[in-house]
Design goal:
The chain is of the alpha/beta class. Helix content is about 40%, strand content about 15%. It has 11 helices and 10 strands. It has an 8-stranded parallel barrel, surrounded by 8 helices. Helix 4 packs across helix 5. The protein starts with 13 loop residues before the first helix and ends with a helix. The model has no long low-confidence stretch (mean pLDDT about 95). The chain binds ligand PBG. Ligand PBG binds near residues 118, 168 and 207.
Amino acid sequence: MQLTTRLRRNRASEGLRRMTRETRLDVADLVYPLFVHGGDHNEPVASMPGVERRNVKDLVRECREAFDLGIPAVAVFPVIDPAHKDEKGSHALSPDNLLFRALSEVKSAVPELVLIADVALDPYTDHGHDGMLTKDGRDVDNDPTVEMLGRLAVKEAEAGADIVAPSDMMDGRVGAIRAALDAAGRTDTCILAYAAKFASAYYGPFRDAVGSAQSKPISKATYQLDPANVREALREVELDEREGADMVMVKPAGPYLDVIRAVREQTKLPLVAYQVSGEYAQIHAAARAGWLDYEKCRDEALLAIKRAGADLVITYFAREMAEASKS
Ligand code: PBG
């Protein structure tokens, strides 16, 4: 056979494969999501092996260790006592909101670690939706919710959040949050918009972790994107960018690699992809059954998200990836 082009030449040894590798995952690309609760002891999350609801002290310890491993940022999610939940999510703005204490303790213990706080009402509402309901209780009420999100974002920034991340998908929230932050003198607080957030079944384990499963028969599909739509996702990104987002997100990540690629081509903003709880659970479950190689699938899933065009990946694997890169 007279072949002049043999692509296998560049693949012949590990040295050559390393030289020709196009995508790398670096510890600096990782964001580590963590759950904090008001209990005394840590509680494992059954559907997310290795993930715990931590008390504030343990959250601070975990954050310091993550920072020492080279992870630049964490996203902190509160598990709110059901006794504090109501129809409007009022506890979000209470000075007793556990999230504010957690943020301020982490910020004072590990000031250089970048702190991200979700802006949404689902941890605080008794129905588990990301906003308050309309009078007839049949939908989430956009404009009063947005007004409240602006106030929540300011309190998060005051407590120590460097980045606020609206994850609610209400219309107009990025602009309203920017205006509220600026009016409060928080001109340096970044907004990471969950711009293309899909109404996905992959959030199930997360809702177990924070106890936000929806009890009312309203679907998040009235505010989160239809999984079928990529052009609409691009409109969301465009709008959030125009309203003042500093970074944009696509979520989930693995099942939406085409959306990540399309957003990458549209925007110059830093692009964050959230490898969500269900993606994490899936890899663990298959590995437990002995059906997939845990580490190889984990690494491949994360690499694919970067290859699609994400600059940063929010992943529950962050800590172990950082540890693996050291060894
Ligand atoms: C809340 C929020 C959710 C996630 C992050 N912020 C759940 C939801 O919208 O129902 C999901 C993250 C995950 O599944 O890991 N607004």
